[in-house]
Automatic annotation (TrEMBL):
<protein>
    <submittedName>
        <fullName>YegS/Rv2252/BmrU family lipid kinase</fullName>
    </submittedName>
</protein>
<dbReference type="InterPro" id="IPR017438">
    <property type="entry name" value="ATP-NAD_kinase_N"/>
</dbReference>
<dbReference type="InterPro" id="IPR005218">
    <property type="entry name" value="Diacylglycerol/lipid_kinase"/>
</dbReference>
<dbReference type="InterPro" id="IPR001206">
    <property type="entry name" value="Diacylglycerol_kinase_cat_dom"/>
</dbReference>
<dbReference type="InterPro" id="IPR050187">
    <property type="entry name" value="Lipid_Phosphate_FormReg"/>
</dbReference>
<feature type="domain" description="DAGKc">
    <location>
        <begin position="1"/>
        <end position="127"/>
    </location>
</feature>
<keyword id="KW-0547">Nucleotide-binding</keyword>
<keyword id="KW-0808">Transferase</keyword>
<dbReference type="InterPro" id="IPR045540">
    <property type="entry name" value="YegS/DAGK_C"/>
</dbReference>
<dbReference type="Pfam" id="PF00781">
    <property type="entry name" value="DAGK_cat"/>
</dbReference>
<keyword id="KW-0067">ATP-binding</keyword>
<dbReference type="Pfam" id="PF19279">
    <property type="entry name" value="YegS_C"/>
</dbReference>
<dbReference type="InterPro" id="IPR016064">
    <property type="entry name" value="NAD/diacylglycerol_kinase_sf"/>
</dbReference>
<dbReference type="GO" id="GO:0016301">
    <property type="term" value="F:kinase activity"/>
</dbReference>
<keyword id="KW-0418">Kinase</keyword>
Amino acid sequence: MEIFIVINPVSGDENKAELLKAVKKQLTENDSLDIFKTTGENDAEKINEKLSAKKYDRVLIAGGDGTIKLVAEAMGENKISIGILPAGSANGLAKDLNLPEEAEDFIKAALGKEIREIDAIKINGELSLHISDFGLNAELIKEFEGSNFRGKLGYALNSIPTLFQNKGPFDFTIETGKETLERKAIMVAFANSKKFGTGAIVNPDGKMDDGVFEVLIFKKFDIIEILKTMNEGAKLSSDFVEIISVKKANVKAKKPIAFQIDGEFCQEIEEATAEILPKKLAIAVG
Ligand SMILES: Nc1ncnc2c1ncn2[C@@H]1O[C@H](COP(=O)(O)OP(=O)(O)OP(=O)(O)O)[C@@H](O)[C@H]1O
């Protein structure tokens, strides 16, 4: 195979040099590998140029959800199969796809023949592959990105002050094409998948290939309900979260509120328009 690998040198706490060595170990003499390291500046344009200049069979991505989203955007309509090498702090997408946790195994899956097509959500012109939201979680991510922490423990430690300064609830107007809802919520999310990278199952019936996404309206900060999200199969109270499956949605807030896409803080915005892009990506899973 002609393989292109995108490595984010700063994501998560995985050692990328070791990871690259382990990838090379699994390649055969019929494989070729071109390496691209992200810099954080104009990466999408540079990746797009590389992918347009040569015909690749597989794009491996060593990074977190932010890096996967970057590569997916850089690909545009050029749908090359992607192999995920989870190397971010949270790796939400890899968890949702149930990719193996050991490097040797996830590399094998990323180079494998079994391909799963998954939907994406287009939000204000950007791709979201996993979960994006307005409110509390985006505030947490904003604080985390502004800190010197990286990795899961850093995220957990850094979350504590933000949780106590929770700025919500906010007033939202949610239009789905079928109904218009007025809700007070601490957080409104667009979810393509079941769980956050932390493992919290916030969208129990979410599927990444069903042609719809869910709008999740979190009404209050409830520790008991949050703990329930850690259990597969737990029923979440509708006083805690209201869930609506849609193909498109428009969410308006009365004032600018923190917004995040797939774990990356965007900015404070008042409105987000989202629509499903069915089977947008092809992911190698085994
Ligand atoms: N060389 C670099 N130096 C600084 N920042 C970089 C560099 N390369 C990429 N980035 C930034 O890394 C971010 C993407 O990180 P990514 O989401 O993949 O990892 P993470 O945040 O550790 O993991 P996760 O999203 O799973 O929590 C982007 O904001 C991108 O601009």
